[in-house]
Design a protein that fits this description.
The structure holds two protein chains of two kinds. In chain A, the strands form two sheets. In chain A, strands 1, 3, 4, 7, 8 and 9 form a six-stranded mixed beta sheet that branches. Chain A has a three-stranded antiparallel beta sheet with strand order 2-6-5, with no helix packed on it. Helices cover 0% and strands 46% of the residues of chain A. Chain A is globular. Chain A is an all-beta fold. In chain A, strand 7 and strand 8 form a beta hairpin. By secondary structure, chain B is mainly β. Chain B is 0% helix and 52% strand. Chain B is built from no helices and eleven strands. Chain B is globular, with a radius of gyration of 14 Å. The chains are: A mainly beta, B mainly beta.
Chain lengths: 106, 122
Amino acid sequence: SYELTQPLTVSVAVRQTARISCGGDNIGIKRVHWYQQKPGLAPVLVIYGDNNRPSGIPQRFSGSNSGNTATLTISRVQAGDEADYYCQVWDSSTAKFGGGTRLAVL
Amino acid sequence: QITLKESGLTLVEPTQTLTLTCTISGFSLSTKGVGVGWIRQPPGKALEWLALIYWDDDERYSPSLRNRLNITKDTSENQVVLIMTNLDPMDTATYYCVHRLGYGEMDAFDIWGQGTMVTVSS
């Protein structure tokens, strides 16, 4: 079955740029979605289809996808961006999630 | 405004059957392309997709759990029901109801319910 690999933790200082990776076999031919989950809350979709932002998501959030790695980029990181981030793809009509990355804001 | 709200027992004994209900508002389960599904998250762990049912009654299941799951919908009641059989303590998790519009790879889970915590224990 298709597997997605994410780093456990990414640390970044306030106002810097955070990059969270999501690895998968030839993931570049798939469409990647990203979810943000803050403690005690349900996940929120922040990027869909590799690099599209739903209404209400700041422009600081962007995505890219090529080869074997998709990346969620958060520019000008704020303390409020501290959360778990999950990537997700569709594989044979089943949804696959990565293991999640904790973004720690220093 | 689209909302989804999960309900069901919060404590279930091992080997028992779990029934979860998702009550939706702000859209119709009969609208072309609409899908409603379930995703769970054990404490401190990652998200796991379970099942999805579409407007046309097309059902999709996680391959690893399909023999224990059944998803149905009641359009007139605006509800989607997930039944999971033969519960095990490893099924302890928060269960989320989710909305999806469309079948394609571009279509993500755009709206989530608040989740309901289910504990499997004797």
